[in-house]
Give the backbone structure.
Amino acid sequence: MPAFADVDKDTWQLTPEIARRVAGKMPIHAVMPVAVYGVPVSADDWDKFTEDTGIPVIIDAAAALETQAVPGKCLLAHSLHATKPFSVGEGGILISRRRDQIDEARCISNFGTIMRIAQKDGSNAKMSELHAAVGLAQLDRWAGIKKRRADVFARYRAALAKSGLDLALQKGIEKAIVSALMLKVSGASAAGIVDNLNARSIAAHRMYLPPLYHHPYFSKCVVVDGQGKQLPGTASLEQRIALMENSEMLNQSLFGVPFHAFVGEDDIAHVMHTLAQALDKPHGQSARGR
Ligand SMILES: Cc1ncc(COP(=O)(O)O)c(C=O)c1O
C-alpha cells in the first residue's frame, strides 16, 4: 500500500530528509522520489539515503532524461512518452548499475522469459522496433530539441521578470529541459487563473494536480507530513488537507502555461498579457478561488 509524503516547499519534491523522518516512524519497503516537472533530484543524496537506511530507492525521473545524474545505488526510470522532451511516442528507460537488476528487468519485460523459457511473471513491455527507430531519429534531433526548449524557457523567464507579476518558478527549473512550465502565484487561486486563461483559449493546465491523495482511488492511502506525522487510510480528505501543508500550498498556487518547443515570442506575450489581466481581477468572476 503506498503512502504519500509531503514535499519540499521550494523544489516541490520529496527530499531524503523528509524520507528519513518518515522512515524513522513507519516501516518503508521502498521510496520513489519524483523529479517533478523534470527538475532532477540529487542522485548523491538519494544514494546516501539508501546506503544509510537499506531502503531501496527508485527515482522517477520521467521527464529528466540526461539532466538527471545516474545514481550509484538507486534505480532510475525515464519516460519516452509524447509529453516528454525526448519522446519516441511511448516507452521508457530503466537504468541501474547492477547487472542482476538489468537482467531481471529484461526478463520481466519479455514475458518473464530467458532465452524463450518462462521463468517468472512478466509482460510484453519490450520497446517495439518502430519506437526504437523513432528513438534513433530523435537522437539526431536532440541538440535542436534542447536548444528550442531552452530558448522558449529563456523567453518565458525574461517575460516574467519584465511583467512584475507575483509569479515564481520552481527552484532548480534552470537545470531541466523543460516540458511543463509551472508558475507559482501568490495571493490568488491557481485553479481560478487556469479557468480564466482557458476561457480565453489559452491552454493553461494543472499537471500533477490535485495531489494524488485527493483522488478517489488513493483515498485510503496513508499520508505523512514533512515531519513524519502520519494519518491512517480512514482519515477524511479534510484531515489530509490539514496535514499536507506544502502539497496543499502547491495545490492552491501552481498552474502551467503553454509550453512546447515552438512557442513563439508573440504567444508568450499573449499569455503574459492575459495573465496580467487575470491577476488584476483575482476576485473576478472567472478567477474566483475554489
Ligand atoms: C513523473 C512521471 N512519472 C511517470 C510518468 C508516466 O510515464 P509513461 O507515460 O512513460 O508511463 C509520467 C508521465 O507523464 C510522469 O510525468
